[in-house]
Amino acid sequence: MTTTDGHILALDLGTSSARGLVLSAADASPIPGALARHKIAPTYGADGSATLDLHEYVEGLLGCLDELQQNGHLDDIGAIVLSSQWHSIVALDSSGGALTPVITWADTRSVDLDLGPSFDERAFHARTGAWLHRLYWTRRIPWLLSTASPSAFAGLPDLVLERLTGERVTSVSVASGTGTLDLTSGGYDDEALEIAGVRADRLPSIVPTGWTGALSKEYARRWPGLVGVPVHPPTGDGAASNVGTGGYDSGTAAVTVGTSAAVRVVHPIDDAPELPWELWRYRVDDKRAVTGMAFSAAGNLHAWLTGVLRLESAEPEGVEIGASHAVAIPFMAGTRPPANVPSGSGVYFGLSFDDTSADLLAAALQGASLEIDRGLRILDSLFGRELEVVLGGGGIDASHWWRRCLTATFARPTTVCAEPEVGARGAAAVALGLSPAPGGEHLTPVPAEVSRVADLRTRYEALRELAIQASAI
């Protein structure tokens, strides 16, 4: 375990906000009141673009640190850690200037690749944990090379780290989310680089987990309390969320619900079980991997429906779990790989005039729960046991009904992480070797709810296949 004197400054680079918060060095819990947030508004275009303004993003993040300093929260910091969204990319010119905005995971622009019959995508997936999907740099970089003349490429966390320290480097965790990492060696994969059409020297150098940088002189003057404080490499948000929720061993699955959702298991990279085609695998740090499945409809689905339906409550009040005769297939934002259902494919089946707004919300949350359950059952099989489950994230925190619904759908007890800041907490735990416990309520599945969801499952699966077929028309 690495220890640190003083508190921990965590920078959380999300899609909807950039935040700075101060954590306790003992257990990575937030210090009350020591939080500054800059809201982010991604720009979406009819061409499939989903981007962030890099300058605005970074300046907003720096403003968060200014706010923390003004309120006296940067005087006792012993470490700086980062948690960041995975999969972002920026094309850079020869001097390191940005030629593009930050291209996020939600951006659908890329190129189709025809690699011929000799390419073995299953072997590629087993080695890199990724597919040849637009989410990854193997398809993003060829597209960017066809539209501009970039000299290099980097992700949002790499550029934030460069802005703070003057060094453009990345972590094995962030690099694994690009789809170009050899998971076993921890270096860039030769075949992935060949497919992308770049050499490794055009990408950020990968530093070990124990690497630290220091703030540049400019920021040493701006925040004197941070002079000499080590800056640790960033952790991908999925890995950080797992560890921060308390899911950091191969017997525990963490279900996190933020803007999107995921179910994941952290395990040693050595002797890792063979990766099923349906799952991805990234790195947590030098010694650990995280295997899981992600879903595009979660907190964004909940927020959208409560707004569209003008619900005063975030809960589907009066609707019993598993009892709604309406079935929602939550493909509003499409699916993640390896499935390729496009956005705009969400479907409701079985609507009637006696359905209420609460029924529609309940059906959507139930559909999202069944999608997550698909991933959990694959992970059960992979690790040869019924996994324990911890729940965390803002979506979990927002709805007691949804927590109960997930517990009934999984048909097993769950533990709810009491700390909503799971990404920042996890980044601190990875950097400093902490093992935070969930520390929240324990939920036991209600037999009647479990039975109703079990009865619904067969109908849901059949209607899900219809929705997938319809999305291809």
Automatic annotation (TrEMBL):
One of its GO terms (biological process) is carbohydrate metabolic process. Pfam families: FGGY_C, FGGY_N. Belongs to the FGGY kinase family. GO terms for molecular function: kinase activity. Coiled coil: none annotated. Keywords: Kinase, Transferase. This is Gluconokinase. Residues 253-431 form the Carbohydrate kinase FGGY C-terminal domain. Residues 8-244 form the Carbohydrate kinase FGGY N-terminal domain. The keyword Transferase applies.
